[in-house]
Amino acid sequence: MKLDNIISEPSRILQGSRIPEAYSVNEHSEKVNLHAVAYPLNTQEVVDLVKYANQNDLVIITYGANTGLAEATSAFGGELIIDLSKMNQIIDFDLDTLTLVVEPGVTNGEVQQYVESKGYFYPPDPGAKHGSIGGNVATNAGGMRAVKYGTTRDYVRKMEIVLANGDVIETGSVAIKNSSGYNLNHLFIGSEGTLGIITKVYLKVIPLPKFKQSYIAAFPSLDDAAEAVLSILRNGLDITAVEFFERRAIAYSEQLLNKTFPSENGVAYLLMTFDGMHEAVIQEEAQRLEKITHDHYAVEFLVLSEEDSLTAWDLRDNILAGILTISEQEPLDYSVPVNEFVNFFKYTHEVEANSGLNFISFGHAGDGNIHSSILRADLTQDEWQKKKHEILTNLYAYVSEVGGLPSAEHGIGLVKKPYFKQVMSSEYLHYLKQIKMAFDPDNRLNPGKIFD
Amino acid sequence: MKLDNIISEPSRILQGSRIPEAYSVNEHSEKVNLHAVAYPLNTQEVVDLVKYANQNDLVIITYGANTGLAEATSAFGGELIIDLSKMNQIIDFDLDTLTLVVEPGVTNGEVQQYVESKGYFYPPDPGAKHGSIGGNVATNAGGMRAVKYGTTRDYVRKMEIVLANGDVIETGSVAIKNSSGYNLNHLFIGSEGTLGIITKVYLKVIPLPKFKQSYIAAFPSLDDAAEAVLSILRNGLDITAVEFFERRAIAYSEQLLNKTFPSENGVAYLLMTFDGMHEAVIQEEAQRLEKITHDHYAVEFLVLSEEDSLTAWDLRDNILAGILTISEQEPLDYSVPVNEFVNFFKYTHEVEANSGLNFISFGHAGDGNIHSSILRADLTQDEWQKKKHEILTNLYAYVSEVGGLPSAEHGIGLVKKPYFKQVMSSEYLHYLKQIKMAFDPDNRLNPGKIFD
């Protein structure tokens, strides 16, 4: 079989110099040679490409929208890239079971817009709205609303998957409850393209909340803000989002967007949202929320207008982009028990003081997911790699010590692989590799990611 | 190593004639010879027992409270039974992360009572409150409240597991978000003792809802009741439980308990609950609920007093027990898309008419989980097995045709194994077996369950 027997349109098979740099230049600005980049339109073409890869002993890397932050799609050379961005159709929306069936190349933003226009809601809300649903599933993407609604994992009812030998299986079911053998759905979710190629996803959607209101609480210290978060959770407030950041983190995006954050008081902020079907409940919970923040010494509590709410969330969404305008940086994504959240902010302050590197932290406080950015500033590449590695080795050891994990929602990919190895037991990694072998004995799908 | 070096107390190692029939007599009343029944008290003893089984090439079956309905713990002869019922301690309750740490032998009822006494809530609520948490995890037990709160799977943060070779691993994390390699937590949940032995479970608990109210709607037909359920779900009512049964199903438990169901009208019932933190919301939703049921021709809508609520739920919980007083029966547990629910009730009526066998159906309408009971009545054992097999073969083919699954919350075990094989593709089963081999290459843990 030849590639042009599988896909006859030249625009959907790129080889040699026709391959864009987005695929062939890695994060260290090194160019690698790829076998080809293919853009299949349907499952059969994916199957044929996989069989072609088997016949020619090629490694396959599956691409979505390339918004990942863990280098899970980096190439080493010689690979067949299967880019699913043209498999981007919404196939069906079944209102009886509230199931949306999509191809993997549909973006998260498209899914959200589509279902909201019909009065329904797809809660997973990662920062990159142009990320693909296939990629969201492959990394178990989370986002702002995970504290109330969970992550992508909680919204996948069923999938169609092409395996390493070209077998096509269906995992999960549109039926809600499932105790019928090992749960392959959950195994493939978060497997970063190493176990199979997702060609169809059946998503769970829910009725759209009728009311939504955001708030800002400004605190005089990190500790006060963090204690307030624990109080909010412990009191059973049904909060949709609780974002935590320091004044200086939001300053980067203020500069980038040329917008002003609604509060100028305090040094640490909580940006929070309630949503639901009952306005009175939101108002009642907001009163409890305000009281809790005051009990924890908040210097300001703002009920945001729609305009201020858009500004505040836009600034929050752009913290990372703001930081990137200043310096190259390493984006982190660790996950700690919620009561350890503040300790990591303190720890990163210590690291800053000791290392001389800027270390900006912000995160999803309601679920213990911290996004720290370590800034390269003016270090040479060698100094930067060395210093970064030293900081990360200590950081991940501390994360592990408190029972946390190196990745909450970005995945392990290539960037966190050494640290994943550092913190997991060798027995644990052994069994992950055994699972990989069970599905992909030739190590054909995205080898070298997550583990060696 | 000898067994009495591992466990020195004779009361915790039973062999020969000291083994109770509960372990050694199978569902066909056949007695099998077992190697031993051991009652370990801690993880180290479990590890030593597993190593002993490896040295002596014994098969291991793990027991919880023996409340399973899928014969997942049936013995074939020669096995070492590891009964975890004496590992029954509540180890820790961490209020910061709302995590309850328990040994596997603690029962579901004990967990519910313990956390409720402290103002918290463990939602998974299978019929058998004396089932063990280890067993709940091994079957992904569901129950009445799954429509709002999900199943056991959604409440397991982390586990300690002893593997087939005696390795001990930890899966999952107390940290909420996890995108760190393949999710082993979810793989072990629902694996029915075939992949490892659960020795510690970290459960997620939530704040206890302050208000709870149950309702009965009586309908003139199955169709009307089923359409009402779809309307309730589609309208976004945040309902905790929606149980569906026919008049004649509840009649069995009325007879058994000598109690009267609060409604005597109609032929099909919905027994429903709302719970939550806001009484006004429950009242408002109840008004919407009442309107929906009236729109679907309900002949009665009752807001239950506490006493009537207890009676109604007690009668619901005892449908199966009531049926059992009349006849031997086969308890089913299939899972279908919610909009197929009523079709299966109609189908079972047809089967009854054609087969001459009674086929009582009831179930968790809100999540498409149907518990049918086929009654043996006065058939001979041969006739019963033959007729039952014919009915089940057709039933599971139909379940599969609509995208459903043979088990929603009981597991496959031994009883559904032939039908699981019938409805799943051979490729799918191949990969399940590959996973089994990855964790248990000697096929030492509960072999012959789920698949051959």
Automatic annotation (TrEMBL), chains A, B:
<dbReference type="InterPro" id="IPR004113">
    <property type="entry name" value="FAD-bd_oxidored_4_C"/>
</dbReference>
<keyword id="KW-0285">Flavoprotein</keyword>
<dbReference type="InterPro" id="IPR016169">
    <property type="entry name" value="FAD-bd_PCMH_sub2"/>
</dbReference>
<dbReference type="GO" id="GO:0016491">
    <property type="term" value="F:oxidoreductase activity"/>
</dbReference>
<keyword id="KW-0274">FAD</keyword>
<dbReference type="Pfam" id="PF02913">
    <property type="entry name" value="FAD-oxidase_C"/>
</dbReference>
<dbReference type="InterPro" id="IPR016166">
    <property type="entry name" value="FAD-bd_PCMH"/>
</dbReference>
<dbReference type="Pfam" id="PF01565">
    <property type="entry name" value="FAD_binding_4"/>
</dbReference>
<keyword id="KW-0560">Oxidoreductase</keyword>
<dbReference type="InterPro" id="IPR016171">
    <property type="entry name" value="Vanillyl_alc_oxidase_C-sub2"/>
</dbReference>
<dbReference type="GO" id="GO:0071949">
    <property type="term" value="F:FAD binding"/>
</dbReference>
<dbReference type="InterPro" id="IPR051914">
    <property type="entry name" value="FAD-linked_OxidoTrans_Type4"/>
</dbReference>
<dbReference type="InterPro" id="IPR006094">
    <property type="entry name" value="Oxid_FAD_bind_N"/>
</dbReference>
<dbReference type="InterPro" id="IPR016164">
    <property type="entry name" value="FAD-linked_Oxase-like_C"/>
</dbReference>
<protein>
    <submittedName>
        <fullName>FAD-binding oxidoreductase</fullName>
    </submittedName>
</protein>
<dbReference type="InterPro" id="IPR036318">
    <property type="entry name" value="FAD-bd_PCMH-like_sf"/>
</dbReference>
<feature type="domain" description="FAD-binding PCMH-type">
    <location>
        <begin position="30"/>
        <end position="208"/>
    </location>
</feature>
